[in-house]
From TrEMBL, chains A, B:
Domain ATP-grasp: 111-299
Binding site for ATP: K107, K147, E184, R185, F186, V187, E192, H215, N269, E270
Protein name per Swiss-Prot or TrEMBL: N5-carboxyaminoimidazole ribonucleotide synthase
GO molecular function (one): metal ion binding
Assembly description: Homodimer.
Native source species: Orenia metallireducens
Amino acid sequence: MSKDPTKQKIGIIGGGQLGKMMILEAKKMDFKIIILDPTKNCPAHSIADEHIVADFDDEEAIRELANKADVITYEFEHIGIEVLKELEDEGYKIYPTIKSLEIIQNKYQQKEVLAVNNIAVPDFISVSNIDEIKSAGEEFAYPMMLKSCTGGYDGKGNAIIKNQDEVVQAYESLGAGSLPLMIERFVPFIKEISILACRGIDGEIAVYPVAENDHQDSILIETRVPAEISDTLKEDAISLAHQVMEVFEGVGIFCIEMFVTEDERLLINEIAPRPHNSGHYTIEGSITSQFEQHIRAITGLPLGATALLRPIVMRNILGEGQQGEAIVEGMVEVAREDTLKVHVYGKEISKPKRKMGHFTVTSDNLVEAIKKAEEASKVIKIKGQC
Amino acid sequence: MSKDPTKQKIGIIGGGQLGKMMILEAKKMDFKIIILDPTKNCPAHSIADEHIVADFDDEEAIRELANKADVITYEFEHIGIEVLKELEDEGYKIYPTIKSLEIIQNKYQQKEVLAVNNIAVPDFISVSNIDEIKSAGEEFAYPMMLKSCTGGYDGKGNAIIKNQDEVVQAYESLGAGSLPLMIERFVPFIKEISILACRGIDGEIAVYPVAENDHQDSILIETRVPAEISDTLKEDAISLAHQVMEVFEGVGIFCIEMFVTEDERLLINEIAPRPHNSGHYTIEGSITSQFEQHIRAITGLPLGATALLRPIVMRNILGEGQQGEAIVEGMVEVAREDTLKVHVYGKEISKPKRKMGHFTVTSDNLVEAIKKAEEASKVIKIKGQC
């Protein structure tokens, strides 16, 4: 690290909304930023110092990024790791480490590492063909989840199998064995919660309060903080988050999604080695946003305070209507709610269910914030226009 | 205004730290930004969509900016207004309006408008030569302030005259009559306070809490919020801020600096028609930062909530040592204070006393925040390196 840490150039693989929000924080401290993203007018484009327009699997471009940057990070975990592994071995700084990324990328390995370390996860088993799925069905009973071990996000790569008759269809919908597969026992959860945790290069760990999430069609719709769960569960969740960060030796911000079961147990659902949609609330809700925290961690700065400033609700704005040039509707109307903050990601094209933006509402009273957010989500829309 | 307000392109005259901090807020909502600044690598350069590199008095460049932008604003008030007046007359949207800017630019006119509207200001009189300054000395008694009516900032353009023997020297230090001059009665104030106020295009007004300021050599050093003054004075100050915004019909964020006299009266010292150094605390301290509020006002969005989230102290980081490439020292050390946030403006060259950055500390306890900020200001330095 340079004596003046702000002189470090940060390379980000991905120039979507997560990259954009990282840059908005990094620029406060005057870090220089290079992004790599195939889309010229991606959300982060206009605020990056330099943009390497290249595919994520373009090894030459990734090497160029590594040579120009002092430290590399990434905004999504589904990237080819071969070249990154080589670069890490050659001494380039990449955070989170490729060692931790490699395990997390594969949901089976991720769960195995957690299970080996006595961290509770739903029961799971590797499967590679229809017969193995059917035997899993006998062991776990239906319904159960079929998941591709790699590459899934926002519910893609997951298929619920309600009975034995659905096995073949589910198997085919996930590539008919072209990707490694696993079965997870279905967890009849009563709540989905998530926790952000960050680990510095030196091992310092900072954990955020527990957030409570709602999904629709496997896409996050709403996050509420603080979560409405017992103090005991909160303590358990925070302790689990610490354990996870130790196990993976993760550097940077991680999001740990958990299920709360009917009998008040916590099971880890998934870990994301990056800023997470369910952590967007931290921009307005926390002393240190998840994006600032990530930048601090990967540049060797001490971590910031994670306390919640006020109860807060975050709601996603998903693309509606047809595919086309993104147009925001209802911005003026919702902004009349004077604690409501709209984030528009700047994706040129809106598609149905694409994450186009989000907004937060803060209040001294979470119930009030939830109500206001629900009303606003009926008014603000991002639609495609041809 | 376009149906989708985020489609507006904002033109900013000036790409310094105020422009930069405006853009960081505007980008959250995905506004497009064009700046005009003579310095290629000015603080706002890397996050603007487009940068017209031109002098502030380059009329052709300002016309280019106006033609490319949907709305124009500026980060400092000492700009030539002839072309802006023409543009305003031609129907271009410029906020704050050039009508309000023209009055505020001239400290004599500014005070006159305030006085006519029964808003208390220190006694003042226009002077144009040594004899008139001496007669003012007889009327107001010494010490008194000689000020150039136009062009001053950070104490430049002001000279204190302690007795009649200093009249000639003060007169000559302010250009010997080349600029319009005024004398102000010296106010033996016990505190300097400031208030941010914002007015929307439709006349909506939002006022922030009272901030308390310390200056050194006429340069702001520290701002503390909430101000330690009586509730009555706070109410008076807030009411004055409302009056000022009505009088000037200002659109956008204004900062109103006031003196608190020994007998607990408030006198308006100066008005800045722009985001102000004493309002930087709002980034971490307030629900809506002064920069976001300004962007909301000039783009026709409703104003945001101005409540303080936590007691907060802001301290400036002024250039130290020799002039040269700016290097930050002590960043890691001060960041160990986990509520401390450093803003590095990204000016390439550090000069003694140049505003190079600032930091804030928040705490539930203002006294604790003050102490921590004082300690940190001994550690974090921005210096020139050759």
